[in-house]
Each structure stands twice: as structure tokens, then as C-alpha cells.
Amino acid sequence: MASWKQLEVHTEDQTPHKWSVPLSEDMFKRFFAPGSPIVHKIFGDGSLFSPLLFGKYFDPSDAFPLWEFESDVFLSNLRSSGKTSIDWFQTDDAYVLKADLSGVENNTLQFFVENGKIMEISGQWKPKGDQSKTKDWRSGNWWEHGYVRRLELPGDADWKDTEAYVSNDMIVEVRIPKSSLDSDNPPAPGKGILAKNSDRL
Q1: Facing residues of 90 across strands?
Q2: Rounded Cα distance, 150 and 131, in Å
Q3: C-alpha closest to that of 4 among 172, 124, 176
Q4: b/e map 82-101, b = 16+ CB within 10 Å
Q5: Cα separation of 168 and 99, whole Å?
Q6: How is 38-107 classified by DSSP, letter by letter?
Q7: Less packed terminus of the chain by CB within 10 Å, N or C?
């Protein structure tokens, strides 16, 4: 049975020029083709961090309005071929994202909410070493060291109460309450609304 750990969702991040270098499609192809198995795992078909997750190329460092679309429609081809284990949906009281991040080191996984409008999930797959202690890896060619997925939050999202959990087998669940409903008892990870949809992954 999976055990869950709650991760901190940061709201203050003063990193200058973060995600200022875009990952173009040509650059991604040159980076991905000779990539290591870990690169293919993190950026490959069906991954939350893949630029091709949504059926056409989209830089994951650009914010995407995820909850404006139905996952059943966007991921139908990947699901039919068994290439993805991601789901997102909304209930009466929350927006939910669930993803299998096996292959990702959970000690580098971070969650940020930027200006109450964008949720960012990021981490490092390759340490930078000592070559640039003064420059954050997110300020340059970030894909050479880490990964990111930035998502636009819906207008009624109560982002201050965003909760993120990771299981011991690297299943991530993010729950963002809707501001129109006052709930003092959100369901625990793996239960309630999440359990009802667990068979969708």
C-alpha cells in the first residue's frame, strides 16, 4: 500500500530570469535524440514534462491552461497505446492533477505558485556541479539540468490552499480547492475524490 508525504507548495521565488530561455522544437529534438535513458523517461511520450504531451509541441516552461481541457480528449491517443499515466479533472470543490513520476528523484521535486496565477512543478535530473554556483539552473538551458511543467490556474482556484503529495512509488497528486466552496476537511491523498478517479490512470 502506498504511503504519502505532503510536499511544501512555495509561493515566494525570487530567482531572476527563471525559465527565460525557451525550449524550441528544434532544440528539443537535438537534445532528446541522443539523450540518456533518464532523459527519455522524463521528457518522453506521456510524461508530464514532455513538450509533446498535448498532441503538438508546447514548451513546458510556458504556462498551459490545463483545466480548460478534458484529459480524456487530450490524452486519448496516448492512453490507447498505454503511454501515459497522467490525469486531471475537477470536482465540485477542487481541481486535481495526478501523475506517475516514476524515474524522477522526489528529493528534487518542487512546487511553486507564482503570483496566484501559475502552478509550477519542477526539479533537477542532473546536478549542475561546481561550474556555475552563482547562476540558478532554471535561468539558462534548464532542460540540460532539470524539468518543468507550468500550468495556468483557473480563476476560481483557491491557490493559497494548494496541496501536493507524493507517494513512495512517485505518484504525485495536486489538489487546488475552488474558492467558491469552504471546506475544512479535504480528503487525504489516495482517498475521497482521488480514489474515485484512481482507475482512470
Answers
A1: 95
A2: 27
A3: 172
A4: eebbbbbbebebbbbbbbbb
A5: 13
A6: HHHHHHSTT-TT-TTTTSS---TTS-B-GGGS-HHHHTHHHHHTT---EEEEE-SSEEEEEEE-TTS-TT
A7: N
Q: pTM for this structure?
A: 0.83
Containing 26, the helix (H) or strand (E) segment is helix 25-32
Tens digit of pLDDT at every position of the chain (201 positions) = 679 999 999 988 777 789 999 999 999 999 999 988 999 989 988 899 999 888 889 999 999 999 998 888 778 777 766 777 888 999 999 999 999 888 787 778 999 999 899 999 999 988 766 555 557 899 999 999 999 999 999 999 999 999 999 998 889 999 999 986 444 555 555 544 344 444 445
User: Which residues on adjacent β-strands are paired with residue 100?
Assistant: 171
Cβ count within 10 A of residue 129: 8
DSSP 115: T
Contact residues for 33 (Cβ-Cβ < 8 A; gap 6+): none
